[in-house]
Amino acid sequence: MRILKTLLAAALGAAVLAASPVLADDKMEMKPAMAMVGDLHISAPWTRAMLSGQKVGGGFLIVENKGGQDDRLVAVTTPRTDKTEIHEMAIVDDVMKMRALPDGLVIPAGETVELKPGGYHLMFMAVPEPFKEGEVVPVVLTFEKAGDVELTLPVKPAGTKAMDHGKMHHGKKTN
User: Fold this and answer.
1) Separation of alpha carbons 144 and 20, rounded Å
2) What CA–CA distance (Å, rounded) separates 12 from 137?
3) Which of 48, 73, 95, 107 has its CA 20 to 30 A from that of 59?
4) Tell me, what CATH number does 72's domain have?
5) Is 37 contained in some domain?
6) What backbone torsions phi and psi does residue 61 show, to the nearest 5 degrees?
7) 51-103 pLDDT, tens per residue?
8) How far does the signal peptide extend, from start to end residue (predicted)?
9) Which of 34, 29, 135 is nearest to 80 (CA)?
10) What is the pTM assigned to this prediction?
11) Domain span holding position 44
């Protein structure tokens, strides 16, 4: 009976670890799928696999500002490329346009901003080696007030349009 209890406890422990929101980066260091820096909670990071020869990719995540002051995402870096930008896609004169946000992206106090396909996103440019499905891409996000936070973006299949995060909308407070 004692052996059975030990085996069950080990199996339960393994199941809990397998279900935990933890990701491994390129160096196999374990990092959580959610990160916190200051009043900011960053969750659901991901990117898409790139096609052979493709030199640009997008990064996506959710930033919730639980504080009383606005903050601003001002930079993103990764060892996977030397050039990254914070971008916005918007419809201008009935045409979808993408542009860099040189002043960064405001994360309003008490609100949640989702970086997603077709909207705000991280832009990885001049990527020498395309991201492959199953890999992770380490990044450092730099916020004006909260500072730097390290996290990893798991690489999803090339055709992935969005992650399922319920009914989140840019600029809306979620509970």
Assistant:
1) 30
2) 30
3) 95
4) 2.60.40.1890
5) yes
6) -170, 175
7) 999 999 999 999 999 999 999 999 999 999 999 999 999 888 888 899 999 99
8) 1-24
9) 135
10) 0.74
11) 22-156
